[in-house]
Amino acid sequence: MMASNTATMGNLPRGIGICTTIPDILYLPELVFGGLVWILVACTLVVPANPQAWVMFVSLFCFSMTFIWMVMFFCGTHNNRGSWAAADFAYHGIAAFFYLSASVALAKVTLEIKETTPLNSRNYKLDISAVVFSYVATLLYFIHTIFSAIRWKSF
């Protein structure tokens, strides 16, 4: 019943099927890497705080919404309608855009810190890790967006 590739997807998965279909299998890595960004940015002390506030907003928003979205798919609230496939595409597209903007802001702040902080400092290492995980999360959301668009068009 559940397709494991996007070419034959006309149904939205429910239950454990979200762990076996593309793009829904990406929910868990999105949660892991988004959570790591959230934790790492929360552990650092950075001036200016404004770009970091955007990064925290994006990571918290996307973590919360992805978890809620995953639970909704798991519980089968979507009733296998094409509008849910379109909403999945729209959400992941917005999340990818948000994460890209947050990743760029975080990388900029990290480069500015590099000039004033020793390279072996704890905050700098945490920021580098956060930048890497933020770009990985961006890539995961982007891939999810592409596969969600393919699934949406197959409805």
Outline:
elongated
Strand-pairing-aware structural class? mainly alpha
How much of the sequence is in beta strands? under 5%
Overall radius of gyration: 17 Å
N-C termini distance:
16 Å
Largest sheet: none
Low-confidence stretches: 1-9
Number of separate strands: 0
The number of helical runs is 4
Q: In total, how many domains does the architecture comprise?
A: 1
The succession of helices and strands, N to C, reads HHHH
Helical content stands at over 70%
Name the average pLDDT.
83
InterPro entries: MAL (IPR013295), Marvel (IPR008253), MARVEL-CKLF_proteins (IPR050578)
GO molecular function: structural constituent of myelin sheath
Subcellular location: Membrane
Transmembrane segments: 25-47, 53-77, 89-108, 128-150
